[in-house]
Amino acid sequence: MKSQDNNLSIMDLPSVLTHIFERAEQPLLPEAQGPLGLFARYLRRKPGRGLAVIYTVDEVHSSHQAHTSDPHRSVSLTLDEQALEGARIRFNAAQTEQTSFEVLPSGVLRVPDLGISVQKFPADASLPALTISCDTTPQTPLFEALQSAARTHLQDSAWCLASARAIPVRYKPGNRCVIRYHLQLEHPTEHIQRDLTIFGKVYADPAQASDVQSLQQELYDEQAKSGDLPLLPRPLGIIASLGLTLNEAVQVDKTLATDERWTILRTGVHALQPQLERGRGGTITRVVIPEEELRLTAQALARLHNSSLLPNKDAPRTGAKEAKRAKERATLISGRNPAQAQRVQELAQKLASRLESLQPDTYRPAHGGFKASQLLFHSHHVFVVDFDGLCTADPALDVGYFLAYLRPSGLWYHRPGMRQWFEAAANIFRNTYSQTMLNYGIAPTIIDGILDRSRLYEAALLFKIATRRVNRLNSPRAQELSAMLDEITACLVT
Q1: What are the distances in angstroms from CA 452 to CA 314, 399, 430?
Q2: 260 with 396, same domain?
Q3: Single pTM value for the model
């Protein structure tokens, strides 16, 4: 809906993007046989960081499903903070047609006077190494690095890389991109060939890539020396100048699986989904809890918390930092939900006060973003990935983070079986974590303190979950927010 001054709405942005590409004489999809459409698949509005929208380009009459995850069909539009007033866009259609644009060296199309940038994958003004990280042409630095990584993984320097293919699998414009590299290798002395998969991750900040990879290597080496299977995939190298890290792909060992679900690689999001068995009339007859997966996860977290690694130990991630974030999130939520603003602010102030006063027995290595989406399960093992947030913190942070995100979305709508599933799953996780920490020689009183403090971190992360509708500019849902606030309240009284 347009305002009275004819300023644009979010629904008008696809036409803005299309028009800029037309002015630049750059076709969005050269191979298209029919009219094109832009189909939004990601939208975020964060204070101080503007608005970002990612679209999939496809023919209007196609099903779109086959291409929604194909980054090569991805185009994005970003609006600087200067172009926005809250959720309102400051400029109108005539301005977008008349204002000059420029083509940046990265391939990004920029309208500087209006604060508009549009880009077609792999062009990315804030991720300039992305294009090079997708170029697997022989003799390039990437090609040589992939060959070196393969030799490290296979523990044989004779292997030669014959060809490589880059497939982007997870892309966050301006921030990072995960790339799957399919390698074809040849062994000149044994006259054999084999395929290998390696994962790469390109960062906007090369210094961050180096820091993360260095910490992962240190953690992996420590885990390997213990004699147990390391809890993270093996780091295989880095192209520091590109900010591109290389790591092994988790391989499934079907010989270790005792039932079918362990013969395939599963993400934590899939493995930790609630399952309900129903009888006649839809009556729930059994709530299925992924007990082994939860125990493996708790054991892996306890292993991490007993590592000797202490990243940035002089600046730990404290309760006070989480308190500040909780209050900022509460302000966002209140702005979009005025009817519940008073309750939101009261809970946030109460939570912040308690977080600020926390005094953990000791700070330990922490993942910093420990949730189901950072887990991979196979062959009765769990692997933890995405250590970008690795830090020194109260271990209660990770416990609370996991439990906050373990809550199924059906819980916010009081769907049958969801409360029973969550409480049972949370108890298995807590009990296993507690027992594993005991096995490491941690005193029961210290473990109890971690679990008690984790309730406050749960509440803080529930505020983060509640901001998702705000950041996506979704319409408020009073029932959903009310249920989340009830959960936060419960965390504060136990």
Answers
A1: 25, 10, 11
A2: yes
A3: 0.89
